[in-house]
Amino acid sequence: MTQPSAHKGPNHKGLRARAETLSAPLPPLQARAEQLARTLLMGGHGRRQSGMGDEFWQYRPAQAGDPGRAIDWRRSGRSDGHYVREKEWQAAQSVHLWVDLSASMGFSSDKNVPQKSDRAALLAMAVSILLMKGGERVALASLGTPPRIGSLQLRRIAEGLAQSTEADYGAPDATLFLPNARAVFLSDFLGPIEAVEAAVAAASDRGISGMLYQILDPAEEAFPYRGRTVFTSMSGGIMHETLRASDLKTRYLERLAERKDRLSQIAHHAGWRFATHHTDHSDLTALLWLYEALEGPR
Description:
It contains nine helices and nine strands. By secondary structure, the chain is of the alpha/beta class. α4 packs across α9.
């Protein structure tokens, strides 16, 4: 007679292995982002913003429209003009990050060049750390949660950035963004541009200001291909073969320039900012641009 098998408890060894595999991308990403953020802060790029606060920031010449009560008469008495005493912005703000997690962002043309998704995740994580150090709340759009602050929120963002989608290209969605917040879109923006235009317009209508930061691989900018070439989308769903790839270069570069111009126009009409970053360039330079762009008018 066969004995019934004994009940087995959870496979702790297997569970631990799966947990370590799942969390493996998180500590390196957070560590790299922390290091990048510290490097920027050590360079003296502190986040200071004029606004309603208690700490003195600077004097500036009075302008038309400044109320009389804003004039610092003691400082003005030492010169021929009138001066306003400005205080540093201290009110907590909300920042929404949309990071393209689509298959297209997994492209890298060289083993020494990071994938676009890796660079986007690093910048998003470093920006989150910097913003939270300044007392601001941050949210990752793909999580669908409101902006928060603290180490737990940073971990949630890191976990969200470790995900990916099977779609060829990403499409931003700003429907859950808080009114009058700020937004950062990180993507190659090589997919249907109508989705980007709709998301920026919807956000702008709710008083949200922000930026479009395009992340491209250097090969996507230079198109170095010649001879017989098979172009395949990262998901494998689209394929095109040509015997003379160099014949496509001029038209490709024209379309890329048109795409950049369209993105710039979308940003301009909404009062947003637009820039392009290449993955073979400095991640610190990219972070500095984002950081300074976030210090624009609120």
